[in-house]
Automatic annotation (TrEMBL):
<feature type="transmembrane region" description="Helical">
    <location>
        <begin position="7"/>
        <end position="29"/>
    </location>
</feature>
<dbReference type="Pfam" id="PF02687">
    <property type="entry name" value="FtsX"/>
</dbReference>
<keyword id="KW-1133">Transmembrane helix</keyword>
<keyword id="KW-0812">Transmembrane</keyword>
<dbReference type="InterPro" id="IPR047590">
    <property type="entry name" value="FtsX_proteobact-type"/>
</dbReference>
<keyword id="KW-0132">Cell division</keyword>
<feature type="transmembrane region" description="Helical">
    <location>
        <begin position="251"/>
        <end position="274"/>
    </location>
</feature>
<comment type="subunit">
    <text>Forms a membrane-associated complex with FtsE.</text>
</comment>
<keyword id="KW-1003">Cell membrane</keyword>
<protein>
    <recommendedName>
        <fullName>Cell division protein FtsX</fullName>
    </recommendedName>
</protein>
<feature type="domain" description="FtsX extracellular">
    <location>
        <begin position="44"/>
        <end position="132"/>
    </location>
</feature>
<comment type="similarity">
    <text>Belongs to the ABC-4 integral membrane protein family. FtsX subfamily.</text>
</comment>
<dbReference type="Pfam" id="PF18075">
    <property type="entry name" value="FtsX_ECD"/>
</dbReference>
<keyword id="KW-0997">Cell inner membrane</keyword>
<comment type="function">
    <text>Part of the ABC transporter FtsEX involved in cellular division.</text>
</comment>
<feature type="transmembrane region" description="Helical">
    <location>
        <begin position="200"/>
        <end position="222"/>
    </location>
</feature>
<keyword id="KW-0472">Membrane</keyword>
Length: 281
């Protein structure tokens, strides 16, 4: 590898880019899912009670709904809590303080267990409920986009993984061609296929390990470049969201998987060559 620095750099660079693209897409999808909220949060149903419903009745209704089999969890937000959140997040604290009384209703936030559409339809019939807010369409569209993104990441991973195999295989093939006479002598001396194949396997493994490390470095650099601007943008929306990269276990799996790609590519090419040149006994 050190005797052919440019060829080595080209092979490792192509492998690193091929590994970085699907990994970057997976990381982006994971962060998008965290930023938009979990699927469970997106499934929540908000029940805005009628203004005339007293707080004691709202608490009693919350207890009744918690006992339903299709309700996983329920949270009651009182008008005072709603007014406090409005003061803190709307930027209209002084104007809100000037308003006499509290016009906000009590709100029940229901986490469904099972089909949330059927639950939302049944809750609309409650006499205390004024408005039912259920963003099922938005959640379904989000889920569809995330599923599409995951499928796209897998397709890219397979295609680019095959590309990495071909790159390593072609590089090892050229190295084998330059050592044909040496390999022929070893075969005549009785060297086994495993003995001849082993250095090329180590070569492919080295390509893969270095390419995996470079791919992690590229993703880390991208994470550092985007972390602060995205955090500032999230803070402007009142969120503490920050990018999350790969942990130590995931990083080790990436490097190991990349090394395995190089090993397999070298093994396939070397095995094919040895089958073609095996001496006749």
């Amino acid at each position: 590898m050190f005797h052919k620095p440019w060829a080595t750099a080209l092979t490792i660079g192509v492998m690193a880019v091929a590994i970085t693209l699907p990994l970057g897409l997976w990381a982006a999808l994971g962060n998008i899912e965290r930023f938009t909220g979990s699927v469970q949060q997106a499934r929540q149903i908000s029940l805005f009670l009628k203004p005339a419903v007293a707080l004691d009745r709202a608490r009693a209704l919350a207890d009744e709904l918690r006992g339903r089999a299709d309700v996983a969890a329920l949270e009651l937000r009182t008008p005072e809590q709603g007014m406090q959140e409005l003061r803190e997040h709307s930027g209209l604290g002084e104007a809100i303080s000037a308003v006499e009384g509290n016009p906000l209703p009590s709100v029940l936030i229901v986490s469904p267990k099972g089909d949330e559409a059927m639950l939302a339809a049944s809750l609309k019939n409650l006499p205390e409920v004024d408005v039912v807010q259920h963003d099922a369409g938005w959640r379904e569209r989000l889920d569809s986009w995330l599923r599409f993104g995951v499928r796209l990441a897998w397709v890219l991973a397979i295609l680019l993984g095959l590309g990495a195999l071909l790159v390593v295989g072609n590089t090892v093939r050229l190295d084998i061609q330059s050592r044909r006479e040496e390999i022929a002598v070893l075969q005549q001396l009785g060297a086994t296929d495993g003995f001849i194949r082993r250095p090329f396997l180590y070569l492919g493994l080295s390509y893969g390990l270095v390419a995996g490390a470079i791919a992690l470095a590229l993703l880390t650099a991208a994470d550092q470049a985007l972390r602060d601007p995205l955090a500032d943008l999230a803070r402007s929306y009142g969120s503490s969201f920050t990018l999350r990269g790969f942990d130590l276990r995931q990083a080790a799996a990436i490097v190991f998987g990349s090394g395995l790609l190089g090993w397999i590519g070298a093994g396939l090419v070397t095995g094919h060559y040895l089958r073609q040149t095996r001496p006749i006994s």
